[in-house]
Each structure stands twice: as C-alpha cells, then as structure tokens.
Specification:
The chain has ten helices and 18 strands. It is α+β, with helices and mostly antiparallel strands and about 325 residues long. The strands form three sheets. Strands 1, 2, 3, 4, 5, 6, 7, 8, 9, 10, 11, 12 and 13 form a 13-stranded mixed sheet that branches. It has a three-stranded mixed sheet with strand order 15-18-17, sandwiched between helices. Strands 14-16 form a two-stranded antiparallel ribbon. About 20% of the residues have low confidence.
Length: about 325
C-alpha cells in the first residue's frame, strides 16, 4: 500500500498500522518503511500517540456514553495537535473510529475519564520513544518514571472530589503522594483489564502484550478492588487470571537505573523486551535458539553490548540492518 500521502489520522485509522503499534505485527515492513521515509517520523509519532491514547478500554458502552464519546471525538478533532487537515481523510478517520467504538474493539481514552468523572478536564498525554525514559511530575506531587515506548495520560488539573486517575500503556514506576492537601486521597492507575488503587506508595507497573506485571516496593495497593498486595509482592495478570511471581525484583526495576538485567531468561523473552524498548525486530532462523537461556546485564544506553553477549555465550551469528536483527 502507498502511505506516502497519509497524515497522522490516516495512519491511526489504518488497521495494519494499529496492529504494529499495539501488537508489533508486521514490524519488519513498518521499520523498513520508517527508515525509507525519515521525513514522516513526526507524523508517525503523532499517529502512534493517537493509537495508544485510544487503546485503554474495550468494554461495552451505553447510548449515553456513546454520546459522550462523540463529543470527545469532536473535541479531539478541534485540538491543535490534530486539526491541521480537516478534509475527507479526517472525516474518514472519524467514521472509522466511530465504527470501531460501536463494535467495542477500540474506545477513546475519554471513556475512562467519563466513567470516573462526569466532567472532562483537559488531558495531558506523555509518550516516550524507543530507548527514551522520562520523569513526570503529576499535579498532586506524585512522580512517574516512564520507561521507553510507553504512554501515560492524566487530567491537567485534579479536583478535590474526583479520584486521582492515570491511564498507562507500557511500563512506569510510580511514587504516589499520600493524601495531598485539597485532593482526593485515592489514586488509581487504569489499564483495560487491571485497575490499581493506592493511597500513597511506590510500585512498578508493566503493561504490554495483554499482560500486566505489578511489583509493590512500599505501602499497600488493591488491584481490581479485591486483591491486596504488600511490599515485595510481584503479581502477573493475564487472560483474566492472576498469578503470584517469585524472582529477583531488582531485575524488574533495573530500567530505572538505566540498566538492562536478565537472569535465566530465554532468548525469545530477551528479544521481546529489546523490541519493546528499542523497536528492534529480532528473528531467530532456528526455533531452538528461542529457548536458549541467557544471563547478563548492561547499560540501557548501549544495547549492542547485550546483543554481543548473546552471540558470544551461545556462539550465534548475528546480522543487523537498521532495526532488523537476525540470529542464525
């Protein structure tokens, strides 16, 4: 398909593009297309932010909520970030989005805010690129350290009678202010299938590939209004089930110190994490390689060192072309 004339909204409405952003499907094609069209990088980043912002909820919604969503779409189209082209392609994106919402396969992040508050304050969406981390100071004084290839969204201003709410896609470490003056004591991190409620604590949340991993370091949190976690607990949530994990908690949060740490991880899992963080597309020419175990660490700023270690430990041959890496 010829994407040369696409703007950000066109990409956001394209099923193949959304599949790449959300599921890393057909990554080789998109990585190569991106490399061949560097002038389109700002457009792709804007489109990616749109897709991630629309990713957070997939529940059925009522007629009243559909009306609220329509209002949000109108507001979104008037936003400075997306109103530069209001021609047929923009309208086509609106219709595509409306159909997706009606089918309950893609819902605006605005629904999250509508369910927790019948008003819709201005939202802030913060996104990191591949290999990038950010420190975000929320309006209540809480601090979020956002890992690479991740997105958080939150109101620009929190009201006293509204629960403090943040939506997350990707990975982040939260240090939440406890009962800040003039604001609601509860704080929630919302994802499609998991909601974390806290009053004041420090915890890490990983949300990728339809699974959520939570590590609680300080305080107490309640997951999905029922499961209580205490410091040191690690939990995995996937496919509607929960599982308590054991292992090295420091490995899960090593990214905060700008390091990559792997302990007895399969090469397939290592490849997936490198893909999430750096946008690599890694292929193994022999399936048996995927199950080989790897232990090692290195600076996050130089993933080439870990790739080199993987080839050395298992005596593999590696070829790399831009972001495409092949092991054989």
């Amino acid at each position: 398909m010829n994407y040369g004339g696409y703007d950000a909204a066109d990409f956001a409405a394209d099923a193949d593009f959304r599949a790449w952003v959300l599921e890393n499907t057909n990554a080789a094609f998109w990585i190569q297309w991106q490399a061949a069209h560097p002038e389109q990088e700002p457009v792709l980043q804007e489109a990616r932010a749109m897709v991630l912002a629309l990713r957070f909820r997939t529940n059925e919604i009522s007629t009243e909520e559909m009306a609220a969503v329509k209002y949000q779409v109108d507001e979104l189209l008037n936003d400075a970030a997306v109103k530069k082209n209001n021609g047929p392609s923009r309208r086509r994106w609106l219709y595509t989005l409306g159909a997706s919402i009606a089918a309950a396969t893609l819902t605006l992040l605005a629904i999250t805010w509508y369910r927790t508050s019948h008003t819709t304050p201005q939202k802030i969406i913060v996104q990191t690129g591949f290999g990038e981390t950010k420190i975000i100071h929320l309006p209540d004084g809480s601090v979020v350290q956002l890992n690479a290839n991740s997105t958080v969204a939150y109101p620009a201003k929190w009201e006293q009678d509204k629960i403090r709410t943040v939506a997350l896609q990707g990975e982040a470490y939260f240090n939440v202010s406890k009962s800040p003056a003039g604001l609601h004591p509860k704080f929630r991190v919302m994802m499609p299938a998991v909601t974390i409620e806290v009053k004041g604590t420090a915890f890490n949340v990983y949300h990728r590939h339809n699974k959520v991993m939570v590590l609680l370091e300080e305080g107490k949190i309640v997951v999905n209004d029922s499961l209580q976690m205490k410091p040191g607990d690690m939990m995995l949530f996937a496919s509607g089930t929960s599982q308590r994990l054991t292992g090295n908690a420091a490995q899960l949060t090593a990214w905060k110190q700008h390091r990559l740490v792997f302990h007895e991880e399969t090469l397939l899992n290592v490849a997936q994490q490198l893909s999430d963080i750096y946008g690599y597309h890694i292929e193994f020419r022999n399936k048996r390689m995927e199950g080989l175990l790897f232990t090692g660490s290195g600076p996050a700023a130089d993933p080439a060192l870990l790739l080199k270690a993987m080839t050395t430990v298992h005596q593999l041959k590696m070829t790399q072309h831009n972001s495409v890496i092949i092991f054989e």
